[in-house]
Amino acid sequence: MIVLKKEKTENKFHSPTLSTILMVEAVLEDNEGVYLTIPELKKRLPKQVNHNTLMQILAYLEESNKISVSLKGITWAHKLSPKLKRSLERT
Fold first, then answer.
1. What are the CA-CA distances from residue 80 to residues 16, 59, 64, 70 (Å)?
2. I need a surface site. Which of 31, 57, 76, 79 has the fewest CB within 10 A?
3. Helices then strands (H, E): number in the chain?
4. What pLDDT does residue 90 have?
5. How far is CA 20 from CA 24, 32, 68, 78, 89, in A?
6. Residue 25: what pLDDT?
7. What domains does the chain contain, in order, with CATH numbers?
8. Which residues neighbour 25 within 8 Å (Cβ) at sequence distance 6 or greater?
9. Burial of 72 per CB tally in 10 Å (0-12, 13-18, 19+)
10. How far is the C-alpha of 45 from the C-alpha of 50, rounded, in Å?
């Protein structure tokens, strides 16, 4: 009888949790119009975030057009439509 061994594959990257993503979003949105460097962003976060995890979050936010990344730094770019904003204020 032949026994096959299952190789354990390790995940090299840690996936960010929803609460961590929302925390980073909130800090960037609160500093709308301000260009933040990565070290400045890390200082403003209420909790410490792993660098690789933060890079994954920033890549996701840039891909979803919520932030703008330039040579000056990172800034919040997502704008709610006025109709949606009024609807959210009513609730």
1. 24, 20, 14, 22
2. 79
3. 4, 2
4. 80
5. 6, 19, 19, 18, 25
6. 94
7. 18-78 (1.10.10.10)
8. 61, 66
9. exposed
10. 11
DSSP 12-55: -SPPPPHHHHHHHHHHHHHTTT--B-HHHHHHHSSS---HHHHH
Q: Tokens 């009888």 sit at which residue?
A: 1
Angle (nearest 5°) at CA 74 between 68 and 78: 40
Instruction: Specify the residue for token string 């260009």.
Output: 35
Say what the pTM is.
0.73
Tokens matching residue 80:
């709610």
pLDDT 10s digits, 15-29: 899 999 999 999 999
Hey, what are 66's tokens?
């919520």
